[in-house]
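In the current project phase, work has continued on tokenised descriptions of protein folds. One protein thus recorded appears below exactly as we store it.

——
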Amino acid sequence: MHRLLRGEVFMLGGFVVAAAVTILLVMPPVIDPAAAQWAQTSTGPLTAADRDLLVKVRQAGLWEMPAGEYAKTRAESQRVKEVGRLIMEDHMKLDLLTRQVAKKLGVALPDEPNPQQQSWMAQLAAESGPAFDRDYANLLRAAHGKVFTTVAAVRAGTRNSEIRKFAEEGVKYVMRHMALLESTGLVDHNALPEPPSPAPAPPVAMAVDSRRHT
């Protein structure tokens, strides 16, 4: 009886091991999501944030270049026409740079703006005169404010030297475009998102600062 039980246990254990091996061979390996988001390149690690920067800059150009074309015929203000031309020309240069960097790093880029950007294009395509001038200045200024935070954050933390150089150029373009849009006098700064509130100072730092003023 005991011999039979030991034999059954031995056979059962063999079946369990065989089943476990079969599962390991059939099931796909578990991939760490964090590890899957970055890749090693000749210019350093390429992260998901680095790729996202290239995608966002590409999409910005894909709607801002047509918007510049709209400004030629739909804007009433000569300054808006000029700003539209300058921003469109800058984005042609920046788009070329974006595609070159993406090709070098093996990053796939979109061929069309995102849905929100497409809605902005449709809005501007249906307007003319003062309404176009106002919406062109404010839509593009708000969009540049959003992409500026992305470009600056990637520049501050990227480990990839190619992305670092690209982000530096991107910061220059975005700052120039914000200034150009503001030069129209049509940007409603009260409608822009407020800067994030600073974190409260630690009690020790507050105490030291108060002593300096006494």
